[in-house]
Amino acid sequence: MVMGELAEHQRRAQMSNETRGGFLPLETLDRAVHRRGDVAWLQAQFMDSARLIFTWQGCNLFSVGETKRPLLLAVPRLTTALDAIFLGIRPDGASLFAADLNESQTEQEALTQLGLTLDQARFTQLRQFDGSLSPEDRALLFYSRSMTHWHQVQKYCSRCGSPTRPEEAGHVMACTNPSCAAKYFPRTDPATIMLVHDGDRCLLGRQPSWPAGVYSTLAGFVEPGETAEEAVFREVKEESGVEVKNIRYFGSQPWPFPQSLMLGFFAEATTTDIKCGTELADVRWFQVSEARELLKRLAARFPHLDTIARRLIRSWLEGQG
Q1: 93 in the Ramachandran plot: left (φ > 0), alpha (ψ -120 to 50) or beta?
Q2: Element (H or E) spanning 110, and its range?
Q3: How many CA atoms lie within 13 A of 74 on its CB side?
Q4: How many domains does the chain have?
Q5: Which terminus of the chain has fewer CB atoms gathered within 10 Å of its CB, N or C?
Q6: Which range of residues forms the domain containing residue 69?
Q7: Do residues 174 and 165 lie in contact, with contact meaning Cβ atoms separated by under 8 Å?
Q8: Is 178 part of any domain?
Q9: Contact predicate 107/90, CB 8 Å
Q10: 255: which DSSP letter?
Q11: Cα distances (angstroms) measured from residue 22 to each of 231, 294, 309, 311
Q12: What is the model's pTM?
C-alpha cells in the first residue's frame, strides 16, 4: 500500500493553494489529539487498522523500481515491541503510526523485520530520494521523520540523566526518575530564510559543501530574545554585509533535518555592498535572467521537495514579469 490516494480534484485544489505561497498543513490527516491518552483505543487501532511509516538510521522506507513510492505498511507481528508514535487518522479511517528500526544493525535486518527484501524496498535519505512525492507525501514524511528523530535524541532526561519513556502516544517523553518526573515535548527550532531584493536583482549565497554553481536564499536560526524580523536583519548582515528594510512574511515550511521550522521572508536591501560572511563560500547579486537559470538547477537538486527557498525565488521572479 502506498501514499497519495486522494481524489484528483483534491490534488488540484491543493496544488492551487501551494502556488499562493504557503506550504500545506496536514489537511488530509486528523491528528486526533484527544486520542493520544486513550491507551485502550490506541492499542485496538494499532492491532486492527493501523498503517506505519518506518524509519531506520534517519532514512525513510521507499519501494524500488521505476515507480518508487514511500511505503505505508500494515502492522507486522514484530512491530508490537516498538515504541510506535501515533500520528493521526487517515481519511479512510485507518490510524497512522511512525516507528523507528534503529535497533537493527543493518538495512537488511530492518527490512527483514518488515518481511521485505532489498529487491522490494530500501531505506533512503529523504533529500536523496529521486522519485516523486505529492504534497501529502511530503507532509507525512516530514512529520514522521521529525517525531522519530526526536525520540532518538530524547532517550534520557536532560535534568537528571535518567532514561525517559514515551507517553501520550509518543508525543511526550517522561523521565522515569520519580523524584524528577520531567516531561519533554517535541521541539521545533525556528529559522528564517529570506529573499533579499534590490530592484531587478536578488541576493543569493552558497555554502562550501554545496555542488558547484548552486546558490540559494540566505538563512539562519532565530536566537533567544529575538523576533523573526530581527533575525532576518541580523542574518543578512552577518552573511553578506547588506542591510535590509520592509521585511515581509511569505510562508513557512517544516524542515526535519533535523528539527526546524523555516520562516520565509522577503526583504528590501538598503545597502548593496557585499562582504561575504565566514559561513558562506560566496554571496552575490543575481539578475533576473541569472536567477531563472539558477532556479532550474535548484529544481533538479531536490525535485521532490520543492523547498521554500525555491518558492521564494519563484515568487520573486513572477513579480518581475
Answers
A1: left
A2: helix 107-113
A3: 4
A4: 2
A5: C
A6: 8-153
A7: yes
A8: no
A9: no
A10: E
A11: 20, 21, 12, 9
A12: 0.85
